[in-house]
Amino acid sequence: MLPPSFSAGSGSSVFFNIPWVGVISFREIGKSLVLPDSMASSRPTIPSVNLLDLSGNPVPVESLVGHPFLLVSLMATWCRPCLREIPSLVSLSRKMGGRLAVAGVVEGKANLSVLDKIRRRYGKRYLLRLDPTMRFASGLHVHALPESFLVDSRGKIVSRVEGQVDWTNPKVVRYLESFLEKKAGT
Question: Which residue range or ranges hold the Thioredoxin domain (predicted)?
Fold first, then answer.
């Protein structure tokens, strides 16, 4: 069991323990916590696939990028941890303002009544896209849900978070704010 404070993991991972959530890993893609611009091209990009909006219209995944940072959460309508995570993602988006956009990508076949409940409850505060073919998740090598990716304005993945997170937990918010502040300089 890790202590409740942050600790540096092996390599370039950072781990911390939050009661009732478990161990969260903000894994860095690359060789250091903050990659200089000269190394930015070595970061993987989000897969270039078409997603669907809630009306079933194709939307290029590139339409999600362009914000200083994007937190994209891959989820499923049958996944209880995924659904429990949504309120905290919406709160995080509101707290971060323009520094961080948040979007959910529903993987696989979606339960339309669950999607409708999410849409009615959160409206435009939680952008949802559909990936019925799961090509987006496959391109990111996702094997379990929920999984979230922090993406910069060019579509480069700068970190990933595995498992359900309470994004309103003060430790998570402080860590993420610090992380975004450091990344803003790259």
Answer: 40-181
Q: Look at residue 27 and tell me if it is in a domain.
A: no
Task: Enumerate the β-bridge partners of residue 156.
Answer: 45
| Residue 4 placed within a domain | no
Q: At 39, which CATH number? A: 3.40.30.10
Give, as one character, the DSSP assignment of residue 40: G
**Adjacency order of strands within the sheet including 7-8:** 7-8, 13-18, 22-28, 157-162, 147-152, 69-75, 101-107, 127-131, 50-52, 58-60
| Residue 41 Cα to chain centre, angstroms | 20
Residue-level pLDDT at 172: 86
Reported as a single tens digit per residue, the pLDDT across 1-14 is 322 333 333 343 44
CA distance 98 to 81: 26
